[in-house]
Amino acid sequence: MNTQPTNAGHGTGSPARPHASGLHEPLADARRTPRAGGILRLGLAAITLELRAYFRTSDTVFFTFLFPILMLCIFGVAFESVGEIGAAPDGTGGITMAAYYLPGMVAAGLLLTGVQNLAIDIARERSEGWLRRLGGTAMSPVSYFIGKAGMILVTSVVQLALLLAFAKFALRVDLPAEPALWLRFSWLYLLGIVTMTLLGIALSALPRSSRSASAVVLPVVLLLQFISGVYLQFTMLPGWLQDFASLFPLKWLAQGMRSVFLPEHFALAEQGGGWDLGLVALNLAGWLIAGLVLSLITFKWVRRS
């Protein structure tokens, strides 16, 4: 649920988008280098240009980085009077509401960065003619995707670092201390961000114009957050809605993140009575493959009527 302005594609709202001119020299070099070398060279150049364009749009940066922090602050402060939840009969093992909502905000941040921002960004670039111009150059779609994926990875890491720092120092949330939990977080994060990036590319094929991009993408992202255990406890939902949400990756990503940031006894509150990390990995990997296949099938430099 992102409230950023409708021009929040990463630099797409500005006519000074540097793709066509900024890639002129690398494109010329790519014609004189082996195909694999040219693809990688253009991809690396595209990452730099994407990051420059992204950080020049202050509204996008502000809302992308601030939104998960703002939501965590709202939930943590609004339910502060509830006190600690999930305490054992002897009063130990409880956590604050801010700590409880942190893993959901981490998962939602990956969804917003990978799916929402990327889907809207690519759809607008296609509608405004940037992709058509790139399609007439030596740039391969692989190079284009390398640029987008690199930008998503960098911005996601920065967003995550700010969110965890805010949770620890402003809301006094105790972060995991065991190296094994951070190792688990690492593979969950990498699997999650790759999956969300590919799904963002695939979803970008749906909007028919730049004006409809936000209208198509935002409701999907908003719905998934509310039914996947980000803002509401997942087991509070009706059984049929839990089963429906389990078809989508955000539910599994949020569950995996809860296994990292919440005490072990909170696993009893999950749908299956445990963290089920094998199912988490299997479902995320399945959506990763689906996103890759859909991206390869649906991506076009120019939308076909």
From TrEMBL:
Entry GO MF terms: ABC-type transporter activity
Region described as Disordered: 1-25
The name this protein goes by in its record: Transport permease protein
Family statement: Belongs to the ABC-2 integral membrane protein family.
ABC transmembrane type-2 domain boundaries: 59-305
Protein localization: Cell membrane; Membrane
TM stretches of this protein: 61-79, 99-120, 141-167, 187-206, 213-234, 284-302
